[in-house]
């Protein structure tokens, strides 16, 4: 498979499913549809390891609001953003400035910045610095948790596990997010030799939900070792496998290499 398939979650992600102790209870009348979607997911993740989700159930206005809020944050002065800088020795939460983290051991410098939202100890810009950053991000986080729980259920179904809630039960941290941006390169910027935008890497978690704008730039390494573009598709979410899922499935769902542009 040298393309990224589109999975339609209509009737699955956009439907309210009963929850008991954090586990999803699917009506028998819906199981056929869920197993059908799970089979498509199995083919995608066992192949290229990426998939687009349409009819995913997350409100488009909340995604748009998050894009606007994150753009506004990254436009703040470096002095303001530095007040919320991530210190890995203390927390996994906070702003990561360009060059602070390298995704590949051969990277010299990476022109990207992000804001990690993770753990119980969180700190956000004050209202006078950014009017609605926390409110917008928490709304999207809650929507993402709901979708992720359904995807974890679908993973169990896709592997026809005896306990189809296995992945939900094993996932202790469904509360971590990363805002990520690759800023434009100024024409007068003196670029250090060896600088890349976002180096090739695999993600470390189970699954990544990637909300794309219309700019694009992400590339995925297919099964033949060829880099192909993950061209944004309107109103979809791009999903990819991570190292933890590869470990849990003994490589059946491999973590796929990807990069931000020609790195």
Structural account:
With 263 residues, the protein is α+β, with helices and mostly antiparallel strands. The chain has one domain: Jelly Rolls, CATH 2.60.120.330. 28% of the residues lie in helices and 21% in strands. The chain has six helices and 15 strands. It has helices at 31-46, 60-74, 78-82, 133-158, 166-170, 243-248, and strands at residues 6-8, 18-20, 23-25, 50-54, 94-96, 109-110, 113-117, 177-181, 195-196, 198-201, 207-210, 218-221, 227-229, 236-241, 258-260. A hairpin with a 2-residue loop joins strand 2 (18-20) and strand 3 (23-25). It is globular and about 60 Å long. It starts with 5 loop residues before the first strand and ends with a strand.
Tally the structural domains. 1
Major sheet: size, sense and barrel closure? Answer: 4 strands, mixed
Strand order across the biggest sheet? 1-4-14-11
Number of beta-strand segments: 15
The H-level CATH homologous superfamily, spelled out, is: B-lactam Antibiotic, Isopenicillin N Synthase, Chain
| Separation of the first and last Cα atoms | 23 Å
| CATH architecture heading | Sandwich
Shape: globular
Query: In the CATH hierarchy, what is the class?
Result: Mainly Beta
Q: What is the fold named in CATH at topology level?
A: Jelly Rolls
Binned strand content: 15-25%
Our count of helices gives 6
Residue windows where pLDDT falls under 50 for at least 5 positions: none
- N to C succession of SSEs: EEEHEHHEEEHHEEEEEEEHE
Instruction: Output mean pLDDT.
Output: 86
Keywords: Iron, Metal-binding, Oxidoreductase
Family: Belongs to the iron/ascorbate-dependent oxidoreductase family.
Pfam families: 2OG-FeII_Oxy (PF03171), DIOX_N (PF14226)
Protein name: Fe2OG dioxygenase domain-containing protein
């Amino acid at each position: 498979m040298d393309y990224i398939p589109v999975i339609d979650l209509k009737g699955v992600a956009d439907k309210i499913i009963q929850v008991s102790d954090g586990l999803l209870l699917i009506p028998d009348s819906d199981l056929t549809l869920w197993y059908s979607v799970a089979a498509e997911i199995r083919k995608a993740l066992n192949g290229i390891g990426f998939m687009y989700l349409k009819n995913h159930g997350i409100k488009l206005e909340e995604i748009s609001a998050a894009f606007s809020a994150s753009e506004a944050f990254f436009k703040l002065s470096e002095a303001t953003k530095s007040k919320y800088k991530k210190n890995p020795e203390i927390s996994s939460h906070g702003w990561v400035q360009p060059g602070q983290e390298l995704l590949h051991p051969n990277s010299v410098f990476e022109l990207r910045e992000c804001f990690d939202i993770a753990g119980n100890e969180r700190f956000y810009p004050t209202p006078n610095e950014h009017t609605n950053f926390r409110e917008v991000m928490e709304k999207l986080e809650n929507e993402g948790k709901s979708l992720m729980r359904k995807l974890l259920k679908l993973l169990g179904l896709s592997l026809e596990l005896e306990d189809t809630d296995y992945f939900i039960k094993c996932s202790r941290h469904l509360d971590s997010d990363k805002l990520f941006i690759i800023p434009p390169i100024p024409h007068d910027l003196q670029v250090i030799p060896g600088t890349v935008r976002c180096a090739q890497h695999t993600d470390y978690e189970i699954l990544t939900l990637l909300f794309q704008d219309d700019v694009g730039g992400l590339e995925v390494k297919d099964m033949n070792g060829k880099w192909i573009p993950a061209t944004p598709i309107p109103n979809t979410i791009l999903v990819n496998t991570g190292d933890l899922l590869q470990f849990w499935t003994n490589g059946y769902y491999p973590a796929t290499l990807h990069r931000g542009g020609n790195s």
